UniProtKB/TrEMBL annotation, chain A:
Pfam name, any one: MRP-L51
Organism: Artemia franciscana (Brine shrimp)
InterPro entries in the record: Ribosomal_mL51
Keywords from the UniProt entry: Mitochondrion, Ribonucleoprotein, Ribosomal protein, Transit peptide
A biological process from GO: translation
Coiled-coil regions, chain positions: none
Major location category of this protein: mitochondrion
Compartments, record wording: Mitochondrion
Protein name: Large ribosomal subunit protein mL51
One Gene Ontology term, aspect cellular component: mitochondrial large ribosomal subunit
Length: 172, 286
């Protein structure tokens, strides 16, 4: 806020008055650049006029409602029930009796995605069709089913006719 | 006493370098003259007539020892010692395998459900917005195109994506033994006769463990699913004290909890299972 009335302006005004009045230049106003300080610092942004209002109340809405801010930081509960025992039973084929594998216990994952290693959309859709083909999905969700079928046929043509063989991670 | 888990990982690396000097198990390249003790061999789980060992090899393969403590107030009675198999509890600290195990545990069940509809899946009309020519406007076929606001995403994420992958059996075995070995080496493993306690109040139980410096978070492991009533009710209220059966033990939980408390039955079961898998000859395709 003291930038509104920087010292060098005061010095300049004082200089004029003192020179006019007495004809002498007072010693106190003759300062080298290294000696001119504004709040213990040399003046920065010389000639810059701040156009934002530096005083008064903070901005607010006409309704009187809250102004949008960044959301408050809410740290995650690292010891919630699911986080405290995360990873349990992942070694059940080693430390258990041996008849269960981790792939048999992936209860949080949808049934048709368990143990699916493919990252390609085409193979995921084929798997979904195989699992849900005879289950009534086609009659319960006809639009979704139709779109899935069309997508599979489109991807078949695209992969076989337009895509290079060694596509790597970029394709689908 | 609050200990930061990041400081813990730093101390693990410092102490691992000491472990390497003291307990490195080198392969047996040459024949040696001395014979092993039958008693020691049977306690370790090696057939006595298998091979001959040098003295340094004997010390490396000798069983480790741990006090059998109790969760009740400490008595002045004599404590017994539990012998621990070095293959399981004094394994070479493979930190790279620990990392692989933790990453596998985090990822293999993870599914990304991000899905952006393609232009044929957007529910908008297929009508041509305006004629091709004469309007002075750009030419368009429908309002579903990626160019339009509210249209499709051209190369967006498509469908549920799984990150399932399998980690080799031996990597998981060695990850388990590394984690157990590190817990033992860093005084974070405590062996207990059973999980009986004499305190009903959760805060009192917490004070008992804090006085022993048993870490802010403790994982209690027993051989059964059915845990004693008192400790179940007490740990139900405390989120950072958790109970687990042996088959639920895993590397991620061992690293998440500062202290690991095993019962004697749990130790026996873990050793039996690990040695069985390490020495079996009918390994299926795992």
């Amino acid at each position: 806020m003291s930038r509104l009335i920087p010292n060098y302006v005061i010095i300049a005004t004082r200089n004029f008055t003192s020179v006019k009045s007495s004809g002498k230049v007072p010693e106190k106003n003759m300062k080298y650049h290294s000696e001119k300080i504004v709040e213990d610092r040399p003046p920065r942004d010389f000639g810059y006029e701040e156009k934002l209002l530096q005083e008064g109340l903070l901005p607010r809405l006409k309704d009187g409602g809250p102004v949008k801010n960044l959301p408050d930081f809410k740290p995650k509960d690292r010891w919630s029930q699911k986080r405290a025992v995360f990873g349990q039973n992942d070694y059940i084929d080693i430390l258990g009796s041996g008849n269960l594998r981790p792939i048999d216990i992936m209860y949080g994952v949808p049934y048709w995605l368990r143990g699916l290693k493919d990252n390609r959309e085409y193979q995921t859709l084929i798997r979904k069709r195989v699992v849900y083909g005879l289950s009534g999905y086609s009659t319960q969700y006809p639009t979704k089913w139709e779109k899935m079928q069309k997508r599979i046929s489109y991807l078949y043509r695209f992969i076989n006719n337009y895509q290079k063989q060694d596509v790597g991670w970029k394709g689908q | 006493m609050a200990r930061n888990i990041f400081e813990k990982s730093r101390t693990i690396l410092q102490k691992a370098s000491q472990l390497i000097e003291n307990t490195m198990i080198r392969p047996l390249n040459r024949k040696v003259s001395t014979q092993i003790d039958n008693q020691q061999a049977s306690s370790v789980g090696i057939h006595p007539a298998a091979f001959e060992l040098a003295s340094w090899q004997k010390s490396v393969l000798s069983p480790r020892e741990a006090w059998i403590e109790s969760l009740k107030a400490e008595n002045s009675e004599e404590k017994r010692i539990q012998l621990l198999n070095p293959t399981v509890f004094a394994h070479y600290p493979r930190i790279d395998l620990l990392f692989k195990n933790v990453r596998w545990q985090k990822l293999y069940k993870h599914v990304s459900y991000a899905n952006a509809p393609v232009r044929h899946e957007i529910s908008r009309s297929l009508k041509k917005p305006w004629p091709q020519k004469g309007m002075g406007k750009a030419r368009h076929g429908d309002r579903r195109s990626p160019i339009w606001i509210g249209g499709a995403k051209a190369h967006g994420p498509r469908g549920p994506k799984t990150y399932y992958h399998e980690l080799s059996f031996m990597v998981r075995l060695k990850g388990l033994s590394t984690a157990l070995s590190m817990k033992l080496a860093q005084d974070d493993l405590h062996i207990v006769e059973n999980l009986d306690i004499d305190v009903d109040d959760p805060k009192a139980f917490e004070e008992v463990l804090d006085s022993r410096l048993w870490g802010p978070s403790v994982l209690f492991v027993d051989d059964t699913d059915f845990m004693p009533e008192r400790i179940s009710l007490v740990t139900d209220k405390i989120p950072h004290y958790n109970l687990m059966p042996v088959y639920g033990l895993n590397v991620y939980s061992m690293l998440k909890h500062t202290t690991l408390v095993l019962t004697v039955d749990a130790v026996k079961r873990i050793e039996e299972r690990m040695l069985y898998h390490l020495n079996r000859t009918n390994m299926p395709n795992v």
